[in-house]
Amino acid sequence: GGIARRRTIPEGILKANNAELSVVFDINAQVNAEVAKDFDAEQAASIEALLNTDVEAVYIATPAHLHGDQLRACARAGKHVLCEKPLGMTVAEAQEMINVCKKMGIKLGCAFMMRFVAQHAEALKLIREGKLGTPTYARAQLSCWYPPTEGAWRQDPATGGGGALIDMGGHCIDLLEMFFGKVARLSCFINNTVHDYKSEDSAAALLFFENGALGTVDTFFCIPDNSSKNALELYGSKGSILAKGTIGQAPAGEMAALLEKDGKDYDSQQARTEGQGMIIAPEPINTYQRA
User: Hey, what's the signal peptide range on this chain (predicted)?
Assistant: First the structure.
């Protein structure tokens, strides 16, 4: 997949101190040869040939409809797996994939790397220290401009499982669950607002967390990249943590916390005179290496 060639191999595997790229396989023979050459790796002709080597773990970044069969093959071959999202095409398939790995004693991870962003780690620390108070509301947005493109598997639910929600919303929901805990219930609207491909280009979900907090996740394939600031908003009884641009592939964005002192009384004027708050700007880290 493109994400492997662009990010995970050069920024993750090759920079990790406990991993070595050995063999690659892509369903596109030309891409397979190019990636093997680019990263000085052996080229496997099939998933079976790859699994017949002495590799210990496999990273799966193929179109979503192939994840299930490929992961099961890895598990049967005794290979640990890091799989891109979505894990499976349905909840039932994803659970079955998890069960297979458990049965075979295989370690399975899903590539939710947004939780390793440096600002997000600092925000989580503030929440765990009680600085945000009782969690009340969270919002995460991840959007981009993704026009109709020939051969784009994400634009067909038969190969991608869905559109904007399943492709990008999974990152957002995983991130909000890291901050506020498990989601108990979820409802969603989807639509093709601009583009006319088979998958949705617009999605907005309403979340109800087990702790009583509310949340929203909005994902779009029809908002220009520079216009979408990929907002992250976390609110509690003692303040808020607000960010723009921290949800994405590259270490970027800005974050600030506006936190109140204990014992604040009701203000009938509802004056909003606080300044920019506490800037959260830790040293950027390589999220792909951490994931």
Answer: none
Sign of CA pseudo-dihedral 52, 58, 61, 66: positive
126 close to 178: Cβ distance less than 8 angstroms: no
Spatial CB neighbours of 263, under 8 Å, sequence gap ≥ 6? none
> Alpha-carbon distance 165 to 91, whole Å?
14
Query: Rounded to an integer, what distance in angstroms lies between the CA atom of residue 110 and that of residue 60?
Result: 10
Nearest-10 Cα torsion for 24, 29, 31, 34: 70
Domains of the chain: 2-111 (3.40.50.720), 115-285 (3.30.360.10)
Q: How confident is the model at residue 289 (pLDDT cuts 50, 70, 90)?
A: low
Alpha-carbon Rg for the chain, nearest whole angstrom, is: 21
Confidence label for 111 from pLDDT (cuts 50, 70 and 90): very high
